[in-house]
Amino acid sequence: MNHPSTISSKLPKNGQSIFSIMSGLANEHDAINLSQGFPDFNPDERLTKLVTEGMRKGFNQYAPMPGMMELREVIADKTYELYGIDYSAPDEVTVVPGATYGIFAAISSVIKEDDEVILFEPAYDCYVPAIELNGGKPIRVELKFPNFNIDWAEVAKLITFRTKMIIINTPHNPSGCVLGPEDLKQLAKLVHGSDIIILSDEVYEHIIFDNTRHESVAYYPELAERSFIVSSFGKTYHTTGWKMGYVLAPRNLTRELRKVHQFLAFSTSSPMQYAYAKMLKNPKTYNGLPQFYQEKRDYFAELVRGSRFELLPCSGSYFQLLKYDKISDEGDEDFAKRLTIEHKIASIPISVFYRNKTDNNVLRFCFAKSNETLEKAAEILCTI
Ligand SMILES: Cc1ncc(COP(=O)(O)O)c(C=O)c1O
Predict the structure, then answer these.
(1) From the alpha carbon of 317, which atom of ligand 1 is closest?
(2) Which atom of ligand 1 is nearest to the CA of 37?
(3) Which ranges of the chain would DSSP assign to H, the alpha helix?
(4) Which of 122, 300, 335, 340 could form a disulfide with 367 if both were Cys (CB 3.0 to 4.6 A apart)?
């Protein structure tokens, strides 16, 4: 059935995402799927039991719009413990249905027609559509390959009177790189004295390796006072399908964020909030994550080392980049599709994270998988 009038798309350049395409292809060809970023193992049983407990105790109706107070209080406590900054649970912590939603709501709450938003490519795919749907203009800066670092002098040159927001993401998807203290200091210097808002995507805050400190903007008061910080319980508790996260922001930004949130979803699942609140009280449930994923990173790297793929450094997130220029000179999208169809292993080509499809012959593999899956995947990669 087709609507009779011609609809002028608000997102004319966006079709099916590469994640759906590659996962579809993986299913169709019965390939091992290291493309989409989600674990193939179950969350802690204590968490699933707590959800049932929440339902039995009657947490089945609308939760308060900004989130259950018990959960917001534990989020504020955890943030204070980790980053030494006080967020007010009533006024500065908002529970949202996933980080993607938090990012969309944050952008919608402050970006107006013709506002410019600086972001870094390769970029997670939800930033640009959210900017454009709100009439904003994405201003892209390429991270420097192969370390994916930021040239802050280049960023400084792009700041105009229209710059309303800068989006950062650390640990970074898709590169697995992280920002260091010097980056955050440069950022603070850049926005000093301006009204620029920071959107800091920190969904992998607990997936960082080699004893590196996660450089949250929360550590830097001059950044935190102008920032939305977005985190995801999906990443922290192996529950990406539950779609829940939170946004930290000073009260004036939170006020605007909640104006959007109350008309978009209004609130998020009650029994899951009940469960996360109890889990989050135990820091062991997230403090063990760096070691857990570092072991997976190292295991996968060791298995792949015998192949013709070149491993790029991975300091955080659950993505390993592999460079394949010694194997083929095909474009990364074609090569990724051929690997899925002919060799039965699915990944994500990195060029899709750039508007200009910058192609460095690199593929992204998700190692949030059981060791058995990683072994099967590496066995294939070693034959290519
Ligand atoms: C960098 C980044 N931001 C945000 C998200 C979205 O998180 P959520 O599943 O909580 O919406 C993801 C998920 O892959 C991500 O990698």
Answers:
(1) 16
(2) 14
(3) 18-28, 45-56, 69-83, 89-92, 99-110, 127-133, 152-158, 181-191, 221-224, 233-236, 251-264, 270-280, 284-287, 289-304, 332-338, 371-381
(4) 300
